[in-house]
Fold each of these.
Amino acid sequence: MSYIDWTVLASSLLLIILYGIWTGNHKHTTESYLRGTQPVPWYTIGLSVMATQASAITFISLPGQAFEDGLRFIQVYFGLPIAMVVICATFIPIFQSFKVYTAYEFLEQRFDGNTRTLTAIIFLVQRGLGTGISMYAPSLVLAVLLGINTFYTNIIVGIGVALYTVWGGTKAVSHTHHYQMLAVLLILIFTGFYIVFLLPSEVSFADSLSIAGALGKMNAIDLNFDPTGKYNIWTGLIGGFFLALAYFGTDQSQVSRYITGNSVTESRLGLIFNGLIKIPMQFGILLIGILVYVYYIFYAPPVYFNKVKEKNWLSIHNTINKPYQDYIQMYEARKQSALNYANNTDTHHKSKLIEVNKQYLNSKKAYYSTLPQADDEKDTNYVFLRFVLDNLPIGMIGLLIAMIFSASMSSMSSGLNALAAASLIDVYKKSFVKSASDGHYVFIGRIFTAFWGILCIFFAEMAAKSGSLIEVVNVLGSLFYGTVLGVFLSAFYIKYIRAQAVFYAVCISQCIIFLLYIYTKTPFLWYNLIGAALVIIIASTIQTIFNILSWSKQARMP
Amino acid sequence: MTDEIYMKWLYRVVIGFLIIQLLLYYSLTAYYQ
């Protein structure tokens, strides 16, 4: 990266951090620290909700996902708009009417303290792991830029975010989100146009889509109901609906975004905005991944997108290696075939391109099998980052990296803020110090933020060993969200279920979900539905048993 | 009350837009298959 990019990167980050500190430099009360005191307009809530979800993972890993797997990941988001409507119509009015700081406070009012603590603990574990994984993404960027181990960059990023959150509070996070989302979207739109500009002159945008389509990457919708398939319209609409309902409706990091609204209408409009924009935005990012894929058909892709790995590869690389020569030869053949298809999009050229692509993939597989650590899935996460570093104009690279960084900082600081809020309100205030001064709680809130920051650094180290980040973060969420959602759905809609029954149901359901994950190959999106259904069914059954026992006890009484 | 009617219309817009998108993505998939 050039010194201009470094200057742009450093000054952008400095500005964002200073802005966060400046806006948060007021005397905090517990309420203003965790919830904000002034009414927040709907567009700030909407952008904030979107930016909380769109961590660095989205911008780094999503184009890589499309590069590898085509557009089909978009189906994960199909249930989201429906979930937004359900949350607006039922969840928000309930949260607002109860005037709660965290989503779990509501559970105590509806059930009891134990249910609230148990649900908060499940949230803390899940969100702690999730925030740690989110933290790994910017650490990865920093590691690539500085050429140092992610062990050190995890620590740098972790400490930076903890300080930012402690000094800024939710309000500052909310304000910075606003500008970042717009900046990120603008840069991504620019990147999309720029890739088309970089393609050979005879290949238009429409041609690049035709080439990607011929090679199976334009697979946005799969109508086949395959219970073992990870991504099809059914997992997306049903599993995705429950995932979004749980994430936006019960995850404190999201609920705190729209509780800040202080007005039911503003909060609802913010979520409606998210429901309208989310799918087109994710589609646009995936489309950038498709364009990057087409770009690497015409310009030789690196053997490893991860520069550190590439450096190791270069030290053992031998150009007269037969599998390597075959691979390069097939790459050239595919490039020519793609050019022919771009010039003449008929079925003959299409089938020729498909055939040559098969041979290319075989030769690639044969060559990679000769390399050490050949099948490293994580390389997918580096695709977009590498493209940006190698191709975007000077200045723009620094700006995009800064925006990816700041987006992840906001996302992580929301995560940390939510973790601190749940630890403070749902565990500390409830079980340890029930009444103290506001200053005391603000101080303890900051201690919790620092504590979770350190813990997330450890989780980020663990993420280094995982696969595609965008998938990992969704799989992890799905393992816990279903159960938590089940508790909230029982609370909202099934008055029959009481505290003790739901408490046992959560414990049993969470164990069943873990067993299913370990021993079956159930696609992860279904866990959201299964978890919620299990809690409701088991809680209803236990409640019925309790009722029968209590009736029979009463009947036996003289 | 006005807010509620207004929101109900917005919910319809969200679901309608989702259906339009599903049709668009389906056409896109079918076209490039």
Amino acid sequence: MTSASGKSDVTLTIDGVVVSVPAGTNVVDAAHVIDVEVPIFCHHPRLEPVGMCRMCLVEVGTPSVDRATGEVQRDEGGQPIIRFFPKLQAGCTTQVSEGMVVRTATPDVGDARRSVLEFLLTSHPLDCPVCDKGGECPLQNLTMRYGPGTSRFSLGEKYHFPKPVPVGPLIALDRERCVQCARCIRFQDEVADDHVLGFENRGRGMEIVSFSDPPFDSYFSGNTSDICPVGALTTNDFRFRGRVWELESVPGICEHCPVGCNVSNDTRNGEILRVMPDRNEAVNEIWLCDKGRFAHHLPSEAERFTSPLIRRDGVLVPATWHEALGLVAERLRGIAAADGRDAIGGIAGDGLCNEDLYLFGRFMRAVIGTNNVDHRPGIVRDDVIARAGVGAQTRPTEIGLGTAIVVVGLDVEEEAPILFLNLFKALGNGARIIVVGGQPQKIDRHAEASLRYRHDTAERVLAVLLSQVLGRLDEVVGGTSPIGEALEEARSALRAALSGYDAAVLEGEHPVHAVDLESAARVIAEAEHVMVFYGREAEALGLVPALGALVAATGRAGGPYDGLVAVGPHANSQGAADMGLLPDMLPGYRRIDSRQAHDDLIAAGWPAVCATGSGLGAAAMLEPESGIRALLVLGTDPIGDDPGREAAARALQLLVVTDLAPTATTRIADVILPAAALAEREGTLTNMFRRVQRTQASVPAPGDARPDWWIVAELARRMGVAEAYGGPEDVIAEIARAIPSYSGIDYAALGSAKASRPSDPFLPFAPETESRKVSYEGTRYDLRASEGVVWGTDSSSAEERLLPLLAWRPRTVSVDAGSAEGPVPGRMSLVPVTRLYDAGAATSRSPVLKPLIPRPYVEMSPFDAAARGLPEGTRVTVRGLRGFLNAEVRLVDGLTPGVVLAPRSLAWDLPPDALTEDGATADVIVERAMSTVTEPDRQSSLNPALDVVPDETIGNAAADQASELAAGRANQSDHPGEGL
Amino acid sequence: MSERFVVLRNREIADLDRLDVYREHGGYAQFERSVRDLGPADVTGIVKAANLRGRGGAGFPTGLKWSFVPANDKPKYIVVNNDESEPGTFKDHEITLHNPHQFIEGALIAAYAIGAGAVYIYCRGEFWQEMSHLERCIEAARGAGLIGKNLFGSDFSCDVFVTPGAGAYICGEETALLNSLEGELGQPRLKPPFPAIEGLYASPTVVNNTETLANVPWILEHGADAYRAIGTEASPGTKVISVSGHVERPGNYEVPLGTPFAEVLALAGGVWRGRSLKALLPAGASAPVIPGDVAMTMNCDWESVAGLGSILGSASFIVMDETTDMVDVAARTTRFFEHESCGKCSPCREGTFWLNGIYGRIMRGEGRPGDVEVISDVVAQIDGTCFCPLGEFALSAPRSTILHFGDEYAAHIGTKNGGAPK
């Protein structure tokens, strides 16, 4: 017999009950299956057993075997003779074996438990009344259940320490409470791959220390506080803020990245006091990154928009919803009548819920009647994920042997921290990793090959890689799998187009080693599964079509653990595209000119579908001559992200913005509509694995703030299209009708733990037994919401899905393009990058994270810095055609010379993305900042024509460089082979 | 008297630590013969036949230990446990200083037997002078072609390295030693896997005591039968016994296993100052004390000592005369174990701390009625619940002193001056 986990089962008897569990299970976990508690402190089902605390001692016997015959010896009754170990055995380090007999309810076991508890309590301060763990503390629980009632230890002999002391910036240690179980150390080593904690000293003097600099240098430090079985590790965010029994826990989805971690918002009196991970075995297991945990502070009510605001004579004045929406509707009608429907545009943020986004798209297309609708920043621009995304059965937590993980243009840990944990776990299960990127990252250390590209011609690296993979598939593996005639033909054509793309193509242009290319190609070709994760940089550099071709040509698209994953910038980057917030696609990636799609949407309840051609994208709508007169902006700040758009925005006749609190965009809005924060409303979000999950309202919205879907629906009503949406459940029901891939979504089921439960009952923690509650309290082992539902990729034939992807051809065909002119002296390539701790609103409002936000800095290779005489910490000016940045220099070993990285969303005068044309790269000059440089007028710095550098501040040489830069740029555009 | 030098041949041969002297007296000939003429299995077979037992304390059959090493592709290691941290033990110290080549040769023979390419000699951290001496001896052997690549023209290569410990008693336990050697915290590892399967750097490893390995060249030279002719049936060979405490001539005495304790005591000049024997700690701090009259019936082999409720261990005899305060003995050993507890498991970490507190109180004259009962309870609570044997070593002195000298506790607790017998 085998279990769902594929291991053969072992049958044993625990306290007289016969139970079968997979081989390799330990006694503690086996006992939980039949709700027998074997109490533990150091053991944790997600960590390797260590057997340190000795709390789990039990009597263990095994069948006596005749040495001569190998037969189990039996008594007269035919029962196996059981031979018990002379000593009690640690249940956590004892693996089950066939016929084993375990006794947990004997006097000896009781004595041992009482003994270990008495020992642990000799050092314990017994300060439960002021301990944050009190009420959810395994030590407290187990003492009540198994411990001695009184202590014989002499109070005066207790060890005393100053308490608490910082282990790092977010976590403090109370050494008096620590029971030295090493869970925190082991979590950091085994799960987080941040080897920053250890024991110092020995015996009773042994204590947890961090030996990293800065201390506890990990994005996952908060998890150690959850799994700490006592109150030794507490977070600076929650310590002394409340008693856990006063908290009301509401399940939610984290809003900070595309992973979609399940969280528990623990609230009191309408305020979130802490965020804990909620268990979802298909997403975050029981972990959460520190940003997700600590960046939960909403703007104060004083900062919030609590009622609609209308600009009258240049001044914003409060208004009722009736007044504000009535005004907007009237103005929109007027503009549509005067300038046409296409004079109106809509832009939504990709952090909003599906319900908001869907209704907004529907409003623009069916009520206004324009395709000028888009989301931003986003990453999914077309249907490549629908065609070649990983199969719906894929569980990121169970990636394993035989899988090649290809990471492209993505810093896994910085952009999607829990995905890093998924991939690190996958490595342990035998997966292999290939990294293709422009800069070093943490996961490089585990990569079989790290291919470092030059950003401007990065696509060539993928072309060479794909060419080698296809070659390998023929040579080594004995041919690619049969895929049908048309596909075969397309693949041959692609191969032919890629001929000549060998390692030599990259020589001198990309810091890629031929041997790494070969090993990357080998790993991909030999893998049973290929998963390609790409990030914002890959999208900005235009690499996505090449990745589509890679998975299509290797036949690794759309199956379980095969295909693409778009790791977007926000919690609903995938959902925003699914909902049809694209100027050239309807919901569900249907063509805007598809008659069938129009009919289906009408059938789903749309009053109409606009029949015009492709609309304008988000960036185009804010171009000066876009023709847009009225713009609706939902939950995003396009002006803050690119102040260069402000003039165009000011020129609009009507700018309507929904948001929580002031932004650069609301500052110039004509009407501001107060939105509810994610924690204040319910709805669904679609994560990067296309998993649709439900989040619930945990605190009330202040004043008149409302969810965006409600705002859009009310506006539609005032535009004459009355719809009866009682709540998000009605909207998602319509989404299920309108988008075929969402057809199975059931809002009620998404909120229920009963739905879509894991099928394997032996997942660690799975049975929600009383016995687990006692030992694992403080960790959210119970399932409180469903796992979510993953929408399946396009179910049409492989040919239909993949043929268009095979039509990709590399844009840069000329092998030696670019090298002829040589680079402009001193020119560097500015690359905006995403870092977890940015100066965004959420991080800035967290009192514990705020000190961790760095001042604006750029990263350069020591080589470049030395060439410019810029030691670490120098103040520099990074000057591009569209403006300049002031920053401190940090030196990064392994960074490609010629590249300067600028983390997005620091306290920049001008966001790095604004220096780039397209969010990808910008040509810049980096020079030492002159002390006499004063804050320049932003308008002039953004206008190349006005960007005349005053001689007295930076001198002629720099001015010459700036003009050279402009010249180089101009030259470049004559050579389409170069640049993007 | 009845000393017999198998290991401490330096007692009979001057300057035996010099390579030339050692080689004049047959040194490295057995290593050369092994590599040239014997197969690895033959070597292991001879050591097995001699029934050489580990001298570090446990007395585990050495040949059997070697035979556990699997024939796989992983690198293999010999680690010499030269940590010698048991209070009262100083035999490996003498071997290291005065007969180092003999155990180095033994280690090289062991390396050949299991196919190890490297020998690590893990030395007690305080052995800094001894370590530089060892380094010089190893350098000399390397210079003579006895250590290095393709030894004696064969395809067997082996190097020898000396590594210092960092001053932890627990690092005498073989898995804690391996952790320490790898640069990790000196705490014992979970077994299985045993070092023979996954030891140093997760590769098959044999950890042998210095004295154990020093026996190996002799066994190969004289044969298993000659070796078994020394000592007892179950415990063949000699044992270096470190005698300290209240004797006239403390020092190392190498005698055949099974020698009566009375003879060893006599070799050491008897109890000093004409006093009488009160008690014996036969294995440093970790053995239960044996009352003097019982000790006089004891023979020095593993079986005999175990029969008296104690252990032979590494045979470090601490002799105590009639003036000894047995509560103080327990207090001092307890302080030692509290200081040396690695902290990995709760019973040892917390229990030794608790015991030490009570003993400290008693010795300050602040003992309370009921303290002996609490000590006995704590001892019982530690017993059988620890991760490694060290926790139970810590119980030997309290338990055996309460058993045999309970009235001294009563005297201590009943007085205000600490109650030491005058």
